[in-house]
# Entry
Amino acid sequence: MNQQIEKLVKSLELLPHPEGGFYKEVYRSSKTIAKTALPDNFSGDRSYCTSIYFLLTSENFSAFHRIKQDEIWHFYGGSSLSVHVIDPNGKYTEHHVGMNFEKGEQPQLVVPAGCWFASSVSQKDSYAFVGCTVAPGFDFDDFELANRADLTKEYPQHATIIQQLTR
# Structure
């Protein structure tokens, strides 16, 4: 791990994330939305909003997963990040989160609720440091890590990228 990555992990007390990379929750609203006010697929009350720091290295990837909420990605530093999204209709899009506008990168990206998504660092021997905001607030009950075989069966046209970004 290079010095900048080690500094970020240590200084921000980042922990390994189940999908890959490192994270730390930095905000969880004190107010909640009652389960009765949420769609039926939520298992309980949710915070209005949550946010995390997320650090991904080029030696790793964030595996395909989906959540029940929209997720907003914010670029902070390092190399650009490719966010791979498969929407419920099977459309695949690779987004680039970063600051190189001439190459089509954007500093912020919204991944809509229910989409499968994964991410990878674009530059070799580097890292991407981002933030992710989720509303209603994130809960691990809303998180589903993709099964490679099942996702490939559902979207065989994307078998190559699914193979690369699942465990």
